[in-house]
Amino acid sequence: MIPFELAEPRSLRDAAELLDADDPAVRAIAGGTALMLMMKSGVFQPTRLVSLRGVESRYNEITMVDGGLRIGALTTLSMLARSAAVKTAAPVITQTLKTLSNVRVRNVATLGGHLAHADPHMDLPPVLMALDAQVVTIAPPGSRTLAVADLYTGYYETALARNELIAEIIVPVQTSRRAAYMKVTTRSADDWPTLGIAVSLALEGGVVRDARIVVSAVTEKPVRLVSAEAVLQNAAVNDDNFKRCGEAAQAEAETVGDARGSAAYKSELLRVYVARTLRVAMQS
After folding, report:
1. Closest CA to 115 of 153, 84, 89, 151
2. Which domains does the chain carry?
3. C-alpha to C-alpha distance for 162 and 273, rounded to whole angstroms
4. Complete DSSP assignment for the chain
């Protein structure tokens, strides 16, 4: 491994100042579950790593805010899974974490790193998109807030500048909404997904008043399927409409093949599992 500088700032703003907007060899590191593998394989060779381990403790805390959640970006996935506040306000997150990688990874991986890595096979980005969550960032020019839906711009690409860090994740109140996440894997239940689907529904008298459907792993980035959502708008809750929604999702999504399955295989999985995930959401 090539030697590199290790910086250990005491605040998240100082950490952002130590990054370089023009140098991709300078990176922040939190849990390091992805970055260390990239370094060991030679895919990434840093000149400087900026450790986030010593920054303010509030960035690894979970708090309730007006009925919603404010989650520090340095909260580990295990902390997220154990949080009573998360289980109460957004139980779909708790459920998703049961099959998100293994406990060794969850114990060190952080939510901010999970989102910023932008691997299209990650489990939580589609869930947070379906929940209409936002991220608050810190950079030398200042802070900004953007929707998780706007965070991803392409394959392993985000809207974050190289000297911009995710500070917090805000999950709004989910009153009366029903949500679910399902994934299909080729091996163990906690493996990388071949397909991931997150849905969130607002219902009124057996009719869908609002639907959010987000797909991942079969596409180059997490994608909200607006045409499939339109099928459910003001539609009755029944299997026929759920099947129609799955067919619309299949027609809308531009699936890509990889080691976990061909584009055609993933397209068919999408058609079937959209309807299944909607049924699971109705039971939540």
Report:
1. 151
2. 59-171 (3.30.465.10), 177-282 (3.30.390.50)
3. 36
4. ----EEE--SSHHHHHHHS-TT-TTEEEESS-TTHHHHHHTTS---SEEEE-TTS-GGGG-EEEETTEEEEETT-BHHHHHH-HHHHHH-HHHHHHHTTSS-HHHHHH-BHHHHHHH--TT-SHHHHHHHTT-EEEEEETTEEEEEEGGGTEEETTEES--TT-EEEEEEE---TTEEEEEEEE-SSSTTSPPSEEEEEEEEEETTEEEEEEEEEESSSSS-EE-HHHHHHHTT-BSSHHHHHHHHHHHHHH-----BTTB-HHHHHHHHHHHHHHHHHHHHT-
CA atoms within a 13 Å half-sphere pointing along the CA-CB vector of 228: 30
Contacts of 186 (CB under 8 A, 6+ apart): 194, 260, 261
Mean pLDDT over 22-40 rounds to 92
Asked if residue 284 has pLDDT above 90, the reply is: no
Closest CA to 75 of 56, 88, 50, 95: 56
What pLDDT was estimated at residue 1? 63
Q: How does pLDDT run across 143-180, given as a tens digit for each residue? A: 999 999 999 999 999 999 999 999 999 999 998 899 99
**Which amino acid, residue 197?**
I
For the cut 80, the answer to whether the pLDDT of residue 212 exceeds it is yes
- Residue 128 pLDDT: 98
Least confident of 18-27, 32-41, 166-175: 32-41
Looking at residue 262, its amino acid is S
Buried b (16+ CB within 10 A) or exposed e, 257-266: eeebbeeeeb
The answer to whether residue 10 scores a pLDDT higher than 70 is yes
Neighbouring-strand partners of residue 178: 201
